[in-house]
Amino acid sequence: HPTFNKHLTRCLLYIYKLYSFTDVKENLFLRLSENKDLIKETLKEKQIFVFKELLNGNKCQKIINDLNHKKFLERNENSIKSIDLTKNNNNKGIWWIHDVNDLLQNVLIQQIMSSSYLIEIAQDYLGCRPILHNVQFWVSYPGDIESTQEFHQDFDDIKFLKVFIYLNDVNENNGPHCYVQNSLHKAHKIVSIDDKLSQRYHDTTVENEFKEDILYLKGKKGTMIIEDTHGLHKGTQVKKGNRIILQLLYGCSTYYPFKTKDFSKFDCNVQDHAILYKAFLRYPYSFMNFNFRQ
Predict the structure, then answer these.
(1) Are 3 and 185 in contact (CB under 8 A)?
(2) Does residue 103 sit in helix, strand or coil?
(3) Which residues contact 11 (CB under 8 A, 6 or more apart)?
(4) What is the pLDDT of residue 197?
């Protein structure tokens, strides 16, 4: 409930003072800093901000190349296999990176996860120091419609913010992300008190109520979507090719580990994860879900 969320963030603010970002100088995502006031205002108004081609295309390709042939999991069939991300290979459905350590070993992903600019934006939206709960990477192929490809609301934390980065070009054929702007405060128009948590809604139901606010987010590789996915959203079905996404999740509370099945902290060491360790030293509250070994 919005009133509860407001009181909670005030309590957290009283205990943990907000970070100061006055001395931050980082090259990655510098344009976020240059546009931070617009981003903050838009997020508060519409719960979404789209930044076209924010991450350099070569950097996107480097992430893909580094994760190429890693093990991926198809959750419906609980199937695990190595995937060539540069080819379709008749793959079907959504495949998630199997070992998150493959992400943490990537220097570019460490830089993204450590971005002070993203932490500042998350802090402003949440109203308190943000916690980086999770990082995910997946590739979507043509296949049957899955639950994430139907309109729904997420319940990752009491209040939270997600960051999606398109690592390849996304058009009408390979599954543009879809969001209903302003639906965070209007979802009650279609949500019944009897609905289960994260109920799925038919396109027609959402279109009848929110037609003018539905966004289908096509974009070149490197496009970043910053979004409160407690608003109505879905991933659209891939018709041709694939869609590759990196995602970060920021939350306001320590609720996430308790509601997430098989949750465990990220296991890091100071040498291999030096960039993350530096961020941990500066923002220890935000990186509480990380353990660092010498």
Answers:
(1) no
(2) helix
(3) none
(4) 76
**Residue 87: its pLDDT value, please?**
85
Q: What is the pLDDT of residue 243?
A: 96
- Tracing tokens 């407001």 back to the chain, one arrives at 6
Closest by CA position to 102, among listed 131, 154, 63, 129: 63
The one-letter amino acid code at 205 reads: T
What pLDDT does 48 receive? 97
Side chain identity at 283, as an amino acid letter? Answer: Y
Going by C-alpha positions, the residue among 257, 254, 201 that lies closest to residue 231 is 201
**Packing angle between helix 36-46 and helix 116-126, nearest 10 degrees?**
40
pLDDT of residue 222: 98
CA distance 223 to 243: 12
**pLDDT in the model for residue 13:** 57
Q: What are phi and psi of 216, to 5 degrees?
A: -105, 115
Compute the distance between CA of residue 186 and CA of residue 234 in angstroms, rounded to an integer: 16
Cα distances (Å, whole numbers) of residue 139 to 52, 98, 153 = 20, 12, 21
Task: Determine if the pTM surpasses 0.90.
Answer: yes
Distance between start and end Cα atoms, the chain: 42
* pLDDT reported for residue 10: 62
- The SS3 assignment for 15 reads helix
Q: Is the distance from CB of 81 to CB of 243 less than 8 angstroms?
A: no
Count each helix (H run) and each strand (E run) in the chain, helices first.
Answer: 10, 13
In this structure, what token pair is assigned to residue 257?
């580990």
Q: Which of 235, 78, 237, 245 is nearest to 143 (CA)?
A: 237
Angle at 238 between CA 236 and CA 241, to 5 degrees: 150
Sequence-ordered list of residues with C-beta below 8 angstroms from that of 100, at least 6 positions apart, any chain: 135, 136, 266
Question: pLDDT below 50 — which residues of the chain?
Answer: none
